[in-house]
Amino acid sequence: MDIKTVVEKAVQSAGRSLSIRHVREVGGGDINHTFLVETDETFLFVKVNKGVPSDFFEKEAMGLQELRKTGAVKVPEVIAYNEKSAPERFLVLSYIKSIRSSGSEEELGRRLAAMHRTEKPYYGLAYDNYIGTCKQENGVYDSWQAYYRDQRLLPQIMAAREKGLLNDQQAKRHIRLAEASGRWLPDDPRASVLHGDLWGGNWMTGEDGSPYLIDPAVLYGDYRMDLAMTALFGGFSDRFYRAYEEASGQPLTREVWPLYQLFYIYLHLNSFGKSYLVHAERIVQRYIG
Predict the structure, then answer these.
(1) Rg, the chain, Cα only
(2) Is 150 one of the catalytic residues?
(3) For the residues 178-188, what does the mean pLDDT come to?
(4) Is domain 104-288 annotated with CATH 3.90.1200.10?
(5) In 3D, which of 242, 217, 212 has the Cα closest to residue 229?
(6) Domain segments of the chain: what residues?
């Protein structure tokens, strides 16, 4: 089935009779084909990907709903996604027209702090999901240190060793840091609702001036993990961090951020190759020498 037909089927799945007036492919990352669809009633944002698992977009939709339920942040409305038994893979969202706004970064900081105040009764997540196209196993944990070690650091280290991106000696050192990570991770942090992949490309400003979060990889855990990701590749100014700090009512402690960034560096190492190894090695050196 060609992409145009998939887009048409996606629009039909929205649950009401919509006539398509115009379809335009737009930029939306390097994972999916994305389309702005004008109908006789509204504009829709449609994601299509032929090469992902059947639950890929369902899990993205569930993540967006997790963020929405906090009542603290705005996300695109989930309108429809493919059934697991269907051969097509698509997600239909409300269209958010992105604008430039000088104050939206501070508002994002305030709203993110409010989202992080939403506390859950456990760490992890009751279902598996995806970050990019990488499947993430989760599970329900009563220990944040165990969850982060066993479901984030160690699986990525093992994958890198299997791919030959870490030699045996390197892998031993990285495993040693993962197993000792409890020395630096907080013992019992609030189990906050986290975006899970909060780099600069995963938020936008809508026409109303409000920040919107997109493309989540949700989990429940230490809020510092989200903040660490914002600092990894840049894109967030001091205004964002000051607004977050003021709204949260506590100073930002950054000592553990590199240990949280390590997971995302491993993910990029396994996805894009050895150019990320130097950064990973530098973090290991920082903590265990």
Answers:
(1) 20
(2) no
(3) 96
(4) yes
(5) 217
(6) 3-94, 104-288
pLDDT tens digit string along 112-169?
999 999 999 999 999 999 999 999 999 999 999 999 999 999 999 999 999 999 999 9
pLDDT beyond 70 at 29: no
Termini Cα distance of the chain:
54
Region 203-213: mean pLDDT is 95
Bridge-based pairing of strands 129-131 and 78-81 is unpaired
61-83 confidence digits (pLDDT tens): 999 999 999 999 999 999 999 98
> According to the CATH classification, is domain 3-94 in 3.30.200.20?
yes
The letter for the amino acid at 284 is V
**Catalytic residue (one of 30, 150, 197, 208):** 197
pLDDT of amino acid 85: 81
The gap from C-alpha 176 to its chain's centroid, in whole angstroms, comes to 27
- Please give the sequence-ordered ranges of beta strands (E in DSSP) within the chain, or none if there are none: 20-26, 33-39, 43-48, 78-81, 90-94, 123-125, 129-131, 134-136, 139-141, 192-194, 203-205, 211-213, 219-221
Residue 96: pLDDT band (50, 70, 90) is: very high
Residue whose token pair is 């996300």: 75
> Token pair 């993990």 is at which residue?
225
120 strand-pairing partners = none
Q: Give the C-alpha distances (Å, rounded to integers) separating 283 from 174, 202, 235.
A: 10, 25, 21
- Taking the CA atoms of 268, 273, 277 and 279 in sequence, report the sign of the dihedral they define: negative
